[in-house]
Amino acid sequence: MTIGSMLGDIVNSFIKKPVTEKYPFVRSETPEDFRGKVVFDAETCTGCGLCVKDCPSKALELFTVDKANKKFVMLYRVDRCTYCAQCEVSCRSKSISLSDDQWELAATSLKPFEVYYGREEDVKYVLDQAAQTAAGASEETEKE
């Protein structure tokens, strides 16, 4: 690279407008077929578990509350997801989709990165069961 071409680039950079987008202040449209946050519809889920099995990053976990009445809760770990859409492709009942408007997912704590999908009472039941299991495990370690 010669000095003349470098000087030409320097002069051009003073004349041209910057290419940078002013992102938080000026928002551009989301591209078509954008892969954002996973959205789960517990009402249409059949509980087959293909989404969990096919997820390469182990970001999904399916809890069966009552299989006969089709009550399921899905734990979605946003921080593990690679947004590959394999779960959406694998879901036969079309219960999973990737949002095209929920993609600003930054947070300062881990709490928002664990999302429970399902009926409110079913989610509460799953969380209570997990708390009981954790309490039982801690009691057994104290006995040892």
Give the SSE map:
Blueprint: H1 3-15, E1 38-40, H2 50-54, E2 60-66, E3 71-77, H3 86-90, E4 96-98, E5 114-117, H4 120-143
Antiparallel strand pairs: 1-4, 2-3, 3-5
Care to describe what's here?
The structure is a single chain. The chain has helices spanning 3-15, 50-54, 86-90, 120-143, and strands at 38-40, 60-66, 71-77, 96-98, 114-117. With 144 residues, the protein is of the alpha+beta class. The protein has one domain (35-143): Alpha-Beta Plaits (2-Layer Sandwich). A hairpin with a 4-residue loop joins β2 (60-66) and β3. The longest helix has 24 residues, at 120-143.
Keywords, separated by commas or semicolons:
two-stranded antiparallel sheet, 144 residues, 3-stranded antiparallel sheet, alpha+beta, Alpha-Beta Plaits, single chain, elongated
Secondary-structure element order, as H and E?
HEHEEHEEH
Structural class: alpha+beta
Amount of helix? 25-40%
Mean pLDDT across every amino acid position: 85
- CATH architecture classification: 2-Layer Sandwich
The CATH topology turns out to be Alpha-Beta Plaits
Inertia-based shape: elongated
Number of domains: 1
Radius of gyration: 23 Å
Report the portion of residues in β strands.
15-25%
Terminal Cα span = 71 Å
CATH class: Alpha Beta
Short description:
By secondary structure, this protein is an alpha+beta fold. It has one domain: Alpha-Beta Plaits. Helices cover 33% and strands 17% of the residues.
